[in-house]
Design goal:
Low-confidence stretches of chain A: 351-355
Number of domains of chain A: 1
Oligomer: heterodimer
Distance between the termini of chain A: 40 Å
Strand order of the largest sheet of chain B: 6-7-8-3-9-10
Mean pLDDT of chain B: 91
Low-confidence stretches of chain B: none
Largest sheet of chain B: 6 strands, mixed
Largest interface: A-B, 37 and 46 residues
Order of helices and strands of chain A: HHHHHHHHHHHHHH
Number of domains of chain B: 1
Order of helices and strands of chain B: EEEHEEHEHHHEHEHEEHHEE
CATH class of chain B: Alpha Beta
Number of helices of chain B: 9
Helix content of chain B: 25-40%
CATH topology of chain B: Rossmann fold
Strand content of chain A: under 5%
Number of helices of chain A: 14
Structural class of chain B: alpha/beta
Number of strands of chain A: 0
Strand content of chain B: 25-35%
Chain lengths: 355, 258
């Protein structure tokens, strides 16, 4: 008989620790404050905080900011910071969900061809003489959204082509096929319209430069809906980690659950891409960092993804707009600069569990 | 009481008939072991009982037709100990065993105290409480196999399917696992259907053996009637001597031409 230490019976199931949530919230606040305070015009962080607190109900604080600085805070920087938080959170939770549902540590939000679909949609609009309207029905984000969602759904449909059972492997292969096909069309269109190449390129590298409150309000319902949907499935993602067959034997309707999670993650990705362009690596770097530090359960990873993903992209955006100030580096370049080495590190430590 | 009834079960995969009209009955509390040469359809038959392989014919578990059951209702009746489990990296033993409670949770719900208590009780029954905080993929083969059985016990299903439960274990751990399954079967009133390659162990632990060949039942009965030198020569192409020892039959391979 094995001797049971007294502490063994006190072992509790994995759960989201309050300390991690607290740290995530602190990261969001600090990143947000830095994002609003720093830029070509530096604003005292203390005064920025006072200005933000002043707008809360029942709080009356005099920030001492000039009207010009207050306008910079409210009309330029805060919407951009909030947008970065939403996009970062959505890309991260989508990436983590894809990694869980495909049981592939290198899966990212663009796995099913969403990036190629968005790229093609945007290229079609730009080569046909795009003019920004700024309305919620602006053609560019709409085309990016439709392209991303269409590509992901096409890959999902092709994943069961020929009467095969839809498995993570067939879905990934279908995603690769869709991506190659759409990228080929996009490249062809770009080559035929070389004068618009820069605009398309800017989208592909990602940008939050045109951010205003309009984009925030457009994105918010998608953020709330997809985050709630994916968070609700966090325990099921832990069950899916034992593979389709065992999960089915444990009573999970695997095909239906996978469809719901893939649609939720693809919707979040499409919505994020429509306002920010293609920002790479966020959906890989942040979930893996959380995994390394806080554990491998999706009950922990998904909620923290929203917080740390938002904070990470806000800081990346801050770097993108300040490092060569007043010029801006595309945010995708910043995330890729950190992401590419990280990607290699994940490959080296994933010990054959890939795929 | 009948725990499992299969009638004319056929499984075809890619136009190939893997299971070809299998009919068998397993009584409550019985341990039936499905044996047969490689490719006989043993694992596919288990997969059909779990609803994992597309099957024609009739499969009833405790009198309820399998095809009419929702996945979670099926999982409350049938638990699986897989041959090659997928162990999620970094998952601890308690969390892994708690997965066995999935059929009792709503799809989007969380584990309740009663589920955690049930998982702990299962660990206690398998003498694994000391391992509760260990990561599953850091365990030895024998310990891991016990954790797999613990997950199936936590599932509280009256019918447990074991697919090659002794593969990759040394002889000592093979005996440990089979003794454990036998003890649980008696204490918890479980019905066990297993597949096994080791015919000596199968004959010593199972009440009944079902010999499959090319997807069909060719022998069905107590070990002494199924495991005979003649049957093993005919269906396995094996040259053996079968010795009826004090603890059951023992199969001794014979070297050289017959």
């Amino acid at each position: 008989m094995t001797t049971v230490p007294a502490t063994a019976t006190a072992v509790v199931p994995v759960r989201l620790r309050f300390s991690w949530v607290g740290l995530g919230c602190a990261a969001v606040v600090v990143a947000g404050l830095l994002g609003v305070a720093l830029g070509p015009v530096s604003i005292n962080p203390g005064r920025t905080l006072a200005e933000l607190l002043d707008r809360l109900p029942l709080i009356d604080v005099d920030s001492g900011l000039s009207e010009r600085h207050a306008n910079i805070v409210w009309e330029l920087r805060l919407p951009r910071v909030v947008l970065a938080m939403l996009v970062g959170g959505m890309l991260t939770i989508s990436g983590a969900s894809y990694q869980g549902v495909f049981r592939n540590p290198l899966a990212d939000p663009y796995l099913l061809g969403a990036a190629a679909g968005a790229g093609l949609g945007v290229t079609i609009v730009i080569v046909n003489g795009y003019e920004r309207t700024g309305s919620i029905f602006d053609a560019l984000p709409l085309a990016a959204f439709v392209g991303a969602m269409g590509a992901a759904l096409l890959a999902y449909a092709l994943g069961a082509a020929g009467g095969r059972v839809r498995t993570p492997a067939t879905l990934v292969l279908a995603g690769v096929a869709v991506m190659s096909f759409l990228t080929a069309i996009q490249t062809y269109l770009q080559q035929r319209n070389a004068d618009t190449i820069r605009e398309v390129y800017m989208f592909i590298l990602g940008r939050l430069t045109t951010a205003g409150w309009d984009e925030v309000w457009i994105l918010m319902p998608y953020f709330v809906f997809t985050s709630a949907l994916l968070l609700a499935h966090r325990r099921v993602l832990d069950v899916l980690a034992v593979g389709d067959q065992e999960a089915t034997a444990l009573g999970v309707p695997v095909t239906r659950v996978r469809l719901v999670i893939v649609v939720g993650a693809s919707l979040a990705t499409a919505a994020a891409v429509s306002v920010s362009g293609l920002i790479g690596f966020v959906g890989i770097i942040v979930p893996h960092t959380i995994r390394l530090i806080a554990g491998t359960s999706y009950r922990v990873i998904l909620p923290l993804s929203l917080l740390f993903g938002g904070a990470f992209l806000t800081i990346a955006d801050l770097v993108a707009r300040t490092i060569l100030s007043p010029a801006e580096v595309p945010i995708g370049v910043v995330t890729a600069f950190f992401g590419a080495p990280f990607f290699v590190a994940v490959l080296r430590t994933s010990r054959g569990s890939v795929g | 009481m009948t725990a499992l009834t299969c009638e004319g079960v056929v499984v075809e995969i890619d136009d190939r008939r893997i299971v070809d009209g299998v009919s068998l009955t397993v009584q409550h509390g019985e341990w039936v072991c499905i044996v047969g040469p490689n490719g006989a359809g043993k694992t596919t038959l288990l997969r059909a009982v779990l609803g994992l392989a597309p099957a024609r014919g009739r499969i009833d578990v405790l009198g309820r037709p399998l095809a009419a059951l929702r996945p979670r209702d099926r999982a409350r009746l049938v638990a699986l100990v897989p041959q090659v489990p997928v162990v999620p990296p970094g998952m601890r033993v308690l969390d892994y065993v708690l997965l066995g409670r999935t059929p009792y949770l709503s799809l989007l719900g969380s584990a309740r105290d009663v589920d955690v208590d049930r998982a702990r009780a299962s660990l206690r029954a398998l003498d694994l409480l000391a391992f509760a905080d260990r990561v599953v993929d850091s365990l030895s083969g024998g310990e891991r196999q016990r954790v797999l059985v613990a997950r199936a016990v936590a599932q509280d299903a009256p019918l447990v399917l074991l697919d090659e439960p002794t593969t990759s274990l040394d002889i000592g751990h093979q005996q440990d696992v089979l003794e454990l399954v036998d003890r649980l079967r008696r204490e918890h009133g479980l019905t066990v259907v297993s597949t096994m390659h080791d015919l000596t162990l199968a004959g010593q632990y199972a009440d009944r053996l079902v010999l499959l060949r090319d997807g069909r039942v060719v022998e069905d009965g107590p070990p002494t009637s199924v495991i005979t030198a003649d049957n093993l020569a005919r269906h396995y192409g094996a040259r053996v001597t079968v010795v009826d020892g004090p603890h059951g039959i023992v199969i001794v391979p014979q070297r050289g031409a017959s």
